Amino acid sequence: MKLDQLQLNTKYLDSVNKEFYQLLDATPLDDAFLISYNKKLCDEIGLDYEECETQEFVDFINGKKILDGSIPYSMVYAGHQFGSFVPKLGDGRAINLGSINNWHLQTKGSGLTNYSRQGDGRAVLRSSIREYIISEAMNALDIPTTRALAIIGSEHNVYRGAFDIQKGAVVLRASDSWIRIGTFEYFARTKNPKKSLSQLADFVISENYTHLENDENKYEKFFYELVDKTAVLIAKWQAYGFMHGVMNTDNMSVSGVTIDYGPFSFMDYFEKHCICNHTDFEGRYSYNNQPYIAKWNLFVLADSLSFITNFENLKQYLDTFFSLHERAYLELMNKRLGLDINLSGDRNLDLILKLLNALENSKIDYNLFFYKLSQIENIDDFSSILDNCIDPTQMQNWLVDYKKALLLNPRAQNKKCEEMKKVNPKYIIKNYMLQEAIEKAEESDFKLVNDLLNIASNPFAKHEEFERYAKATPLEFANIKLSCSS
Description:
13 strands; 12% strand; globular; two-stranded antiparallel ribbon; alpha+beta
């Protein structure tokens, strides 16, 4: 499909009152140019690749070209940031363009909005590259996520401090929803919360929970399903060692996907209390806390929905969150280990808990461990794993127990088990890789950006040219804390 044939719709504008959004056009970057586009998402949207290589496509992302049906707007929302309520946030540098094929398109870095507060409405190259690549990496790992269709750069100066002058960039993002828990928080604090919340909930249900539209208890059931989705989402984060870094309620989607990539990180060596955000002084959003914060955020949503639902019913269902989360986590961890949870039951839980301790003490790269395990053909030889441990003692003991579990589980004795191969990728996108791509991009070399996008999209492939990225993260870059890199 040609770019001019895309027909966008902006149903949100017809679903809520005008006080909840701002109509505006982007403020274009100077001398914008294409850095990369995502062919896989082009396929899902129905856009021809050739169209992405035109100046018109750059103009579209840069806000100079408006497609049929598009009415650009930014949304208001509130949120609990590090546990403290902020009554008015919103799309401070994002502009919604409309939706097509169930994808809501949004540009990030498009200039000032009514919700920019002290910000400048811009995004810089480093944060844009990080989000562009990691969202595709998450998708390839079957972790629900927003996506990114393309990224443009520019010669536009963006100031991030007296001595920090960056170049502006824009990411064209796509999601099945940009509504957040914080959106419901804002609507719950209006003069007529029942009416406002009903409008918002009806919109969300019509977009993401269509099977509930005619249900008598649709608002409660929407919440129940979001609890289920979020429990599974966080289980996948934990199983792959992913840390979001800023799980504020305004960064939590009501469609149950990962949203807003800031100081994120995939675990290098395992550390259960790992903090990836250097401003998270108390560890509120540490790796180990993520399930607890997710439930806390859902409680905030339940409180907002109490104007249109029975709060006690929501709270009672929320009590199932940890059992749902644990079940999903154990299921995926058993797959990563090549074990059958139905055959081994609680024994595998004990084995997994012991594994986490062994991983933490051995200082082996977390996802490299699972990949090496999936490649072993002879269960009497675990040298490829032990050789990657800084201290192999506890891992050696765990492998003895693991071998016993395999022998009790005939399906898992073949280490080329298909399930293991499908869930243990050779490549996980790490922050040091992204930093390499950023540094090259700052010198106008965008080849590694595109190469990393290819690796991120196909993490189970060989990519022999990039074999070094399949090895452990160099220790000097392991488990470092990051800023938001705005």
